[in-house]
Specification:
The chain is of the alpha/beta class. It contains six helices and nine strands; from the N terminus they run αββαβααββαβαβββ. It is 29% helix and 20% strand. β1 and β2 form a beta hairpin.
């Protein structure tokens, strides 16, 4: 388990527009306030990433509805029915930093089941970006020890949670919801 002070430290950094290194339900990630365009820009700079969309994490379906224009019933069914980490691409995001969304306005969101991640999202009260803690093109770190020193030096805070564990061996499944009710698998 973790100490409550770890949540409080991370929330303080996030509220100031900082970037954190933290464990998620999939891999070690770097994240920031997904409603803060300046903080999101820091993530792109750290990762040397040029594309303009990131996965975001929310605590639950109530928070999800604050950041998605329309949450279809099939999305709720998928969230409740699938145990493995699942990221869903929704047609239109709202109340979120523009540089988190894809150019077409769509947004990729996951509700993590990782206890620290979930509690952090609840305490922060806003969504977080979630992108693997690596420079774009490098391998994804499955443990804290595999996160490069370059990444560790670039963030404003490193959580002291799960530093000796190993994450899942793969990222989340990503599906896209289409207007006709069909579900497209982007990554499995």
């Amino acid at each position: 388990m973790y100490e409550r002070s770890e949540i409080e430290k991370a929330v303080r950094v996030l509220k100031k527009g900082g970037v954190i290194l933290y464990p998620t339900d999939t891999v070690w990630g770097i994240g920031c306030d997904a409603t803060n365009e300046r903080a999101v820009r820091k993530i792109y700079n750290i990762k040397a990433k040029t594309s303009t969309s990131l996965i975001i994490l929310v605590s639950d379906t109530d928070q999800l509805k604050k950041y998605v224009s329309n949450v279809p019933g099939v999305a709720i069914d998928l969230i409740r029915g699938i145990e493995d980490p699942l990221t869903i691409i929704y047609k239109k995001g709202k109340n979120i930093a523009k540089n988190v969304m894809a150019p077409d306005g769509s947004i990729a969101i996951r509700i993590p089941k990782h206890p620290f991640c979930h509690d952090l999202l609840k305490a922060f009260g806003k969504p977080l970006t979630s992108t693997s803690a690596n420079i774009s093109g490098d391998s994804t770190p499955l443990s804290f020890s595999r996160v490069s020193n370059e990444i560790k030096k670039s963030v404003d805070h490193i959580t002291a949670v799960d530093k000796y564990g190993i994450c899942r061996s793969r990222p989340s499944t990503i599906v896209k919801l289409h207007d006709d009710g069909e579900i497209g698998i982007i990554r499995s």
